[in-house]
TrEMBL record:
<dbReference type="GO" id="GO:1902495">
    <property type="term" value="C:transmembrane transporter complex"/>
</dbReference>
<dbReference type="GO" id="GO:0005886">
    <property type="term" value="C:plasma membrane"/>
</dbReference>
<dbReference type="InterPro" id="IPR017871">
    <property type="entry name" value="ABC_transporter-like_CS"/>
</dbReference>
<dbReference type="GO" id="GO:0016887">
    <property type="term" value="F:ATP hydrolysis activity"/>
</dbReference>
<keyword id="KW-0067">ATP-binding</keyword>
<keyword id="KW-0813">Transport</keyword>
<dbReference type="InterPro" id="IPR003593">
    <property type="entry name" value="AAA+_ATPase"/>
</dbReference>
<comment type="similarity">
    <text>Belongs to the ABC transporter superfamily. Macrolide exporter (TC 3.A.1.122) family.</text>
</comment>
<dbReference type="GO" id="GO:0022857">
    <property type="term" value="F:transmembrane transporter activity"/>
</dbReference>
<dbReference type="InterPro" id="IPR017911">
    <property type="entry name" value="MacB-like_ATP-bd"/>
</dbReference>
<feature type="domain" description="ABC transporter">
    <location>
        <begin position="3"/>
        <end position="237"/>
    </location>
</feature>
<dbReference type="InterPro" id="IPR015854">
    <property type="entry name" value="ABC_transpr_LolD-like"/>
</dbReference>
<dbReference type="Pfam" id="PF00005">
    <property type="entry name" value="ABC_tran"/>
</dbReference>
<dbReference type="GO" id="GO:0005524">
    <property type="term" value="F:ATP binding"/>
</dbReference>
<protein>
    <submittedName>
        <fullName>Macrolide ABC transporter ATP-binding protein</fullName>
    </submittedName>
</protein>
<dbReference type="InterPro" id="IPR003439">
    <property type="entry name" value="ABC_transporter-like_ATP-bd"/>
</dbReference>
<dbReference type="InterPro" id="IPR027417">
    <property type="entry name" value="P-loop_NTPase"/>
</dbReference>
Amino acid sequence: MTIKVRELTKTYNPNTDFPVDALKQVDLSIEQGEFVAVMGPSGSGKTTLLNMLGGLDTPTEGEVKIDDLVITRLSEKEKIQFRRDQVGFIFQDYSLLPVLTALENVEFIMQLQGATESESRDRASKLLQRVGLGSHLHKRPSQLSGGQQQRVAVARALAPNPKFVMADEPTANLDAKSTADLLDIMQQLNESEGTTFIFSTHDPRVISRAARVIVIDDGAVTEDKLNPDYRPHLSPVAE
């Protein structure tokens, strides 16, 4: 599945004396299975772009098209279904439900899709094992470190078998080791599952690991290049 963005513009407060152009006539394409970093300073528009790609926000002008589906024309109900079935989200604040265990946090999205309890529990357990949390299934977020909570968030994002994972500043609150571990996990899953990963970031540790880097400044794409130093990473993830 290919994401195609055409003339994408987002203006906040458009009918006031102080409109803000978060995105300006953005054109780009992202192919299935890419591992992409969207970089730029705070306020450059990178988070707004991810929100548009994931159907969380609506543009002022332009469109986002995935194969033949123009998601920017969907109704709110259709957008909810699209996000539930096609997109996984990873947020910098983890956004885990505090009263649920790691296993229950991952199971939850699959149950929304209609999976049985046994199906969702089996897949959630396997995903948490893949991200190195096989011995932490029944711990609540407060019992996990920041890096471990972000691993739960990765497993949750992958639970519904999404075509795309949108990761908004996923390493912002992590130390160097947790960042490296998390990137190992996501790169491994990208290569083994063919899931597209798109990051918004200004973290050089993330940018150096991406296969492709898109630079946004002041709402416009100023650079789009492949990373010549990109290296595959298929080694197992340690517990």
